[in-house]
């Protein structure tokens, strides 16, 4: 499967995109554990979750013929950056030249939390639909696997920081409702853009180019990792080398993690002054470590290196699920301490104006 059709522009009229908690069959909230992507990829007991993860990801990317639907992979990925238009045509913006993503401020981790949850919700929606199509003795097991499936995280603190092969293999084989099939390209390895080709050029979209665009490059038909530096082998070697050299900084991060009233120093790479002693070469904050992964995965002119298009690379979601996991660990060790009362000046982002019609409900204020 691959993308096709005109460049999608977000529709002018849509129902609200609602983020809802997953539920059990009796209507109660369904709490499940997010798993390591390596575990899902390798453990036989989780084989059905692996099948559904890959099949649902493929459907999220290409299964909806309406590429302008706000719940497609392209549209959700575009919230982070391109295209520079209001998501779902909802609300007024303070300017058209940035994506919604929040960086360089203490809201960095918490802004990305509902963003990851939205992606997870739509991934699970497809998994549930696909699971209902299985027949035979395994049908009930696939339904149960869909109920248990959550967005996995890539734990780049383990396995020498190598990217799991399920995310890099060019093609994958799954047990689908119709039988065994091979998916090519592997939906976790790349995203094929709608036509005409989009990528690090993105010159076909409105409001571009501008000062916030990545360096000019030949437009690509799909996302790329380390495209000018050797691809996957270079990505893995760069990750391993950088993580090895940052051992002392990991210790500092752990120290900050367990200090009281240090959320700003833990959360982002631009803490308020005066700051504690910090390594001038590498930022020990959660966002600083996050930056390291982005740059080493994307490389020169790879999509993960540029916030404007990073959300289009499938690995972005496993990476940010790990970031959210580390935030949860910080919260567990600091139950009475969260954001600090400081005036923020983020690195960039598009913001809703004060009068924007953000919808709420009695259940979800």
From TrEMBL:
Region annotation Disordered: where it falls in the sequence: 1-25, 201-237
Any GO molecular function: metal ion binding
Keyword set includes Metal-binding: yes
Tyrosinase copper-binding domain ranges (all copies): 103-120, 313-324
InterPro entries with a match to the protein in the record: Di-copper_centre_dom_sf (IPR008922), Tyrosinase/Hemocyanin (IPR050316), Tyrosinase_Cu-bd (IPR002227)
Top-level taxon in the UniProt lineage: Eukaryota
Swiss-Prot/TrEMBL keywords: Copper, Metal-binding
Protein name, UniProt field: Tyrosinase copper-binding domain-containing protein
Organism in which the protein naturally occurs: [Myrmecia] bisecta
